[in-house]
Design goal:
The protein is an alpha+beta fold. The chain is built from four helices and four strands; from the N terminus they run E-H-H-E-E-E-H-H.
């Protein structure tokens, strides 16, 4: 199972992350990606870069995601290319969050 974690902390919520998560869930279902689950996450620590979506276990982090970006992210989940323009988070923060996720903190 692959998991798409959508930040739901106050900063990301103020930028529309709740609606973003709901729309993302619809698009994943519409594409028939049964091995993908879109779930809320409390905070990734990159509030100024939100809304943030982390794809796990492949460890891709997309920042400043808008509804218009969801088709490209869904395409990536279906085997398409990584959305490079949304990959802007500092590598040290990424590694810290990935380590937490690797320990089972979902």
């Amino acid at each position: 199972m692959r998991i798409c974690l959508v930040c739901q902390n106050i900063d990301c919520k103020s930028r529309g992350s709740e609606q973003l998560m709901q729309e993302f869930q619809k698009r994943v279902a519409a594409r028939g990606l049964t091995d993908v689950e879109v779930k809320p996450y409390m905070c990734f620590g990159a509030c100024q870069e939100g809304p943030n979506i982390v794809l796990y276990p492949e460890k891709n982090w997309y920042a400043k995601v808008k509804v218009e970006d969801l088709d490209e992210i869904t395409d990536h989940l279906a085997g398409g290319p990584h959305v490079q323009r949304l990959d802007t988070i500092d590598s040290s923060l990424k590694e810290l969050i990935y380590q937490l996720l690797d320990t089972g903190i979902l």
